[in-house]
Request: fold
Amino acid sequence: MLTGRLVVGLGSPVASHLGALGVAKSHLLSCLPTRSGLLSRSLSSGSNGSGKHSSVYITDTDGNVNANTPLLLGLVNYFERHLPFVGYFAPIGGSANPGSGSHPMDRHLRLVHDTFEPKYDVKQMMGVPEEEAVRLVAAGQRAELLDRVYAAFAAFREMHDMVIVHGTSVGSGKLDAEIANAISSPAIITCQAKDRSVADLRRKVLLKKALLDDHKIPQLGVCLNKVVNRNLIVTEIHNKLQEDGLNFLGAFPDDPVLRAVRVDEVLPALEAQLMLGSNVTLDQEYSAVYVASQRLEELLELMTTDGDTRPLVVTSRDRLDIVMGLLASQVSIAGPNVAGILLAHAGGAPNRTYAHSLMSRMFEGLSKGYRGSLLPILATNLTLYDAVRRLDRLRGAVLPTSTRKIQHCKNMFDACMDAASLVAGLAKEEQLITAARRVTPKMFAHSIKSKCLANPQHIVLPEGSEPRVLKAASEVMLRGLARITLLGDPVAVAAEAKKLGADISSCNVVDPKTYPGVDKYVERLLEARRGKNITPEAAYDAVTNDVNMFGVMMVAAGDAAGMVSGAIHTTAATIRPAMQVLKTPNLVSSVFFMCL
Reply:
């Protein structure tokens, strides 16, 4: 971890913060503390090791493959921490049509591919396209289907030490068992718990167990999805499954974050285009849909009255007053909390632009001149009526662009799954052997973050109201990687964080202009710059008006272990105070990790 004093200045804020914490540049990949020595003893190398490969087959009692996203992302992320080559394979998948107002049923292929970025095409992660599989099953050619699935899986397995195989909803549950048998993979049974009693859950699981037993498929355990009363059900079902000879691996709650629809999910569902905003502002949920057909003042009054509601406002393209009014209210720290604006086709002449070019120029000017987070504005060619209908049918999903949901899935896996029990089951089935020796980027990141978790340090971030800094600070605090102090006006910082949906309640926010201990820092600066003809007034001005100088003085006084800056400040502005006060032994101007 950090020793002595450290100041880091980098261009990318998220990379900067992680660099200061000793974490490789990534999307804050989740960090699971090793529960026992079992992990290092059991996990093995297949592709570049002994030649033995392992796999886990996920099969659902209802064939509901879409409910397993937290489990799938969590498993891949977990094994990537310990093995060099981990893959995801769908025996049957591919070209499902997303349809109107929904998401592709087989979205997991693209999700896993884009999240973990393997060095091969997404098509290699699939056995047989869904349409082709349905045709073969209907024609009674199951044997040919199984042969093709096995051939594709065998080629894919040769590239990996561990493969997470996602079962199929095509055909009956028997086809799922036949595929698991064909590829010789032990299974995890999943079951949706929402609106089901413990007796019903047990019956569903035992039916699936009997089917797998008939096909001689060992079961690693049972995982429940969408559990409402988690504590009560977990205790009861755990005891029942033990009586049935099944291992209970964990239960994922019916989580509101995953149920919520995010602004970025509206783009593909409504075939919309992004007119204003960024990935940071798109990656947040909305809690309601407001159709803005009233006057602007009535809309603002409604949103002010609704308090904590964070709506997506839908209006027609000819309502420029709504657009400009909401943009102005968003810039104000006292304005209502809005997740985004969706502009629908207003009717009339097809070639009428409704000042589209004027809006585009104004948005471009805002993007270049305004440093705060900008309200995302989307536009669709659908009519207002059709757009609202699609939004009403839209259900929350985890897309490749849903950074926060992806991280949340990994966090849920860490909190809800007994990974040590899973690994023990795999070892019992002789699926895993000698530990891998090659250190991969995932292993490296996990090792560094484990050190951060073991000894969290105090980091000061001078650019406290910068959107990317706030998002990074929220994630760092959520993961327990460090203690964070943000510099800036507490009211402005809190307002900006609220716009982003970033939880900074655990962060300390300090305003250099009103900090009661500023005299201590002024004295230290005078001492450090003795002989440079700096006056007390000039020292006071530097400490209170230059956030980088204030952050450096926190480090110099021992009030912080390190400072990270450079998101909106130049390298010179970041480094100069450190060189003046801390001198070069305590200074790092750039941090890069090259992970090959």
